[in-house]
Every structure is written in C-alpha cells, then in structure tokens.
Amino acid sequence: MRINLVVLRVPWHIVVFTILTLSAASLKRRAIIALFSRMVQASSATTPDFATFDRLAVQMSYYHNMLRGSWTELYAGTDPDARKPPSPSQLIRVGLHFCRHLETHHDIEEAHWFPVLGRKMEAFRATGFAKKQHKEMHKGLDKLSRYLIACQQGSEDLRRDRVREIMDSFGDVLWLHLDEEVRELGGENMSKFWTLQEMRNLPF
Fold it and tell me: What's the whole-number mean pLDDT along residues 111-123?
C-alpha cells in the first residue's frame, strides 16, 4: 500500500518523531497499527473542522509514541539474548526515565485533562476506563520505580529478569490504554460530545 505523506494532515515534527520511533528495534506491532490508523484517518480529513475535533488525539499520539519508545528500549535491555545489552547503570537510567515520564503524564492528565473532558465524557470520569487503567498500571509502575531506585542506591542488585517480570505485570494494560485513550479522543468520537467552538476553547 502506498501512502503519500505530503497529504497527511499531521504536524511535521510528529511525522519525524514517528519515523524515528518506528525504527526502534522490537517495537510492538500494535504501535505500528495504531500509528498508521491515526495517520490514515488524518489523511482523509478534508476540512479544518475534522482537524479541530481530532487535535487532542494527535497530541496524545505524540506523547504515547514517546512512551512506547521508552518502554521498548527498556524491555529490549532486559532481553537475556541481547547482543549488546545496556550496562546496569544505563538500564536503570532508562527505566527511571520511563517511570517518571509515565507518572508525570498521568499526573497532568488527571489534574488538567480528565476534569474537563469528564464533564461530557464518561470515559474520563472517576468510573471511566482511563482512570481505572491508570490505577491498574500504577500497581506495576510503582513497583518498578521502587526496585530501580533500590538498585540505583545499592540496596538491591539489578536483575534484568526481575525488571522484565515487573514490566510484564502491567504491560498489557499499558499498551491497551495507549490505544484506547487515543481512540476515545479521535475526531469522530469527540464530535459526538463537543461542538466545534467548545473544541477550540478547551484549555489544552
């Protein structure tokens, strides 16, 4: 299938980052499918109105692709058969960067995005899927962060299989969330809840 990048209504910096992200080794197939789905949908937008409704999904895709890349880099570093595995200090640094990035991302969403979106969308209320998935993710994320900090401080010896085990405990819900949240923020869905002017007035 041929894709003409010239007609994609996606900011150039997102396209560049996307290409770099897709080049990462072992990137999960779901990430590629989600990305192409978003880009193809954007390319079919023939009016500025759709771009306005879709802009939060484009923003979120950008951040989620960074998280996918960090996760993939960390997970690859735990592979016992890796040809050039990162040093323990490098793996800890990558892991803590991922943990802090995801924690900050969730803090911003729950403090600024969800209260506004939740006025009209059940998905972003306390009982919605987004916050439930955050809570489920943090069971493993907090454990991973504590373990890596302990390794950094020398109170634990770094075991790559332990890092992978913890990541596996919340990987499925993380990757599901990265897909579902963007889909919920997609232009077609957002137009069911918000007017064009309301979309323009959203504070993020």
Answer: 98
Q: What is the pLDDT of residue 20?
A: 44
Which CA distances in Å does 51 have to 37, 39, 100, 103, 187?
15, 12, 31, 28, 7
Which of helix, strand or coil describes residue 112?
helix
* Distance of alpha carbon 81 from the chain centroid: 27
Q: Please give the average per-residue pLDDT across 103-122, as a whole number.
A: 98
* CA-based nearest residue to 137, from 98, 177, 91: 177
| Separation CA 49–CA 191 (nearest Å) | 10
Instruction: For residues 21 and 23, give the distance between their C-alpha atoms in angstroms, rounded to a whole number.
Output: 5
CA-CA distances (angstroms) from residue 145 to 42, 124, 152? 36, 26, 10
The yes-or-no verdict on residue 55 having pLDDT over 90 is yes
Which run of H or of E encompasses 202? none
**Cβ atoms of 190 and 199 closer than 8 Å:** yes
User: d(Cα 111, Cα 109) in Å, to the nearest integer?
Assistant: 6
Structure tokens at 56: 């939060």
pLDDT at position 48 is: 83
Q: How far apart are CA 115 and CA 33, in angstroms?
A: 30
Tell me the C-alpha distance between 50 and 196, whole Å: 9
